[in-house]
Give the backbone structure.
Amino acid sequence: MRIAICVKEVPDPTAVKRIDDSTHRLVRAGENTLNPYDRHAIEAAVQIKEGPAPDTEITVVTVAPASAGRSVDRALAQGGDRSVHVADDAAAGSDLLGTARILAAALKRESFDLILLGQQAADSECYVMAGLVAELLELPCVTQAASIELADGAVTIKRQVETGYDTVKATLPCVVSVSDAINEPRYPPLPAIMGAKRKPHEVVSLAELGIDAATVGTAGAATVVGGLSKPEGRGDTIVIEDDGTAAAQLLAFLVEKKLVA
Amino acid sequence: MIGIAVLCEVQSGTVTRGSLGVLEEAARLGAALGEPVTAIVCGSAIDDAAMAALGGFGAAKVRVADDALLASGIAQPVVDACASAQDDGGYRYWLAVASIMTADAMAGLAARLGAGLVIDAVELHAEGGSLVTRRSGLGDSVLAHCGFTTPVGVVVTRANAFAATEGNGGSAPVERFTPSFRAWSQAVTLVGHEDAVETGPDISAADVLVAGGRGLGDASGFGTIEELAAAFGGAVAATRAVVDAGWYPYSAQVGQTGKTVTPKLYIACGISGAIQHKVGMQGSGTIVAINKDKNAPIFDYADFGIVGDLHTIVPKLTELVKQRG
Ligand SMILES: Cc1cc2nc3c(=O)[nH]c(=O)nc-3n(C[C@H](O)[C@H](O)[C@H](O)COP(=O)(O)OP(=O)(O)OC[C@H]3O[C@@H](n4cnc5c(N)ncnc54)[C@H](O)[C@@H]3O)c2cc1C
Ligand SMILES: Nc1ncnc2c1ncn2[C@@H]1O[C@H](COP(=O)(O)O)[C@@H](O)[C@H]1O
């Protein structure tokens, strides 16, 4: 079985994020890290390999600047066997459609049985990449999987919808995004972290994927940001660090607000 | 390209309130742009007479695709239906309110059409004869004014961004169209469904909600949350992460896929504050957050935040509230 996992590098969620006033793009200069939601997709693949399909090869696929190597290694440490990293200056500024086109081209070069994604990206807070990529690859798609069972060339997936829980079955190959409750990702042991660098890394350009640079990146963007504004905030926030008196301080606040008698 | 198509989702036989809200917003946008609005309804055993009522929410025309493949809540057959509607409709914009199905359907449609896609739009403006959305970003700290370079633009609006009125009682002509389904769109089948069962008190009616997230550690963590809720005479709410993990019943879930609540007091314990959770509770009167990570997004929209361990703070608070009660 061949599993691909799409992973994204995102700004460290603990760092303050900011959008550049002139380019209207996220400033990616600070510390970056592997999208935390993607760790659940890697763990899901590792569990398939440890369980029903031991001969599985797990390929980590990313579209990111060349500097994203560390995040790729983190994904490999968690259980990937090899990586495909599309790094090309012309890919910078890709919007959702542009990123999907690049990912689809990278995935199409090989034949994967299962393509896994995270539920959403922590930076863009979207959750549509699976739907985009599946359509470009003309493959079935199931998003927000809360569990995945693999049997007889098909996956059976439980997922939450507005009216309850659906169980759906999809034939392989297919594209699946996983919910952050599907598993508890393990932290890789030190040898796995050390070994990640030595796993096969492939860095490819847009030209190698046969992508016309005019259809992706800033040049090919289907959406443009023409300006930025500030939304209305909620007003004042009091944030305190607990020094043992936090519960009492909160109670006083609630009493003042007449929320407690 | 002419007109605005609004994908109106049918759940349990009726068009969702969120879809009606977007339809009305589309009508305002359409009036400003001079673009007529068409409601697109996909489902099975659709009652055309009932759909005519979408005219009262701004649709100039209603187009219905009725097929068993469209009844299962699976997105890809809906992509096919929308693409078929686009073939003869030639719409300039496609809109839908975010749901599990519509977000995937609009993503698939954008990919099929090579159209620009905007997610999480909170405002729709007519600027220079075109649609320019306001797309919320970075934990709602910035609004990006996002438009399209492609002939067709596809927009998924944030849940609850556009509240529906009761309509003006008008009606619109309804016509049927026949989608052509692709092979890969039929490769996902619905094999089971568990309806959400209402258990416990109705969280939408409670004045005080104490909500628990993954920070509780495990299902047993809800014990302390229930005690705090009881001390307030309130009810318990939950995030999707803990519902999906089986720690708490679905009927307590707050957020985009769950319920929208507006209690006087919402106490979020061990909840990071993802946008999909926020949209279901940001209308609460007072929001309190207890989280050990000072960078958790929930602090951006809490009125009172405590950085600390909920396992020590929540029991203390329960005692203090009980003492006053
Ligand atoms: C299409 C879609 C629909 C969705 N619909 C919904 C929805 O309806 N409702 C919903 O809630 N989510 C929904 N989500 C999921 C949402 O994006 C988040 O994944 C989810 O809300 C996270 O839940 P959480 O806050 O419990 O978990 P986490 O994000 O894991 O946060 C846990 C928090 O607990 C804190 N913590 C840990 N230990 C402690 C401690 N001892 N004391 C104090 N704090 C602690 C951590 O710092 C962390 O901030 C949806 C997602 C998608 C993509
Ligand atoms: N640049 C990227 N490279 C690889 N995978 C990505 C990229 N962007 C998004 N993804 C995948 O798509 C998922 C959802 O992202 P999004 O819909 O963009 O929020 C992520 O969890 C990743 O699995």
Observations:
- The longest helix of chain A spans residues 38-50.
- Chain A touches chain B through 84 residues (CB under 8 Å).
- The pocket of adenosine monophosphate (ligand 2) is lined by residues A 6-8, 35, 37-38, 41, 62-64, 99, 103, 117-118, 120-121, 124, 126-129 (CB under 6 Å).
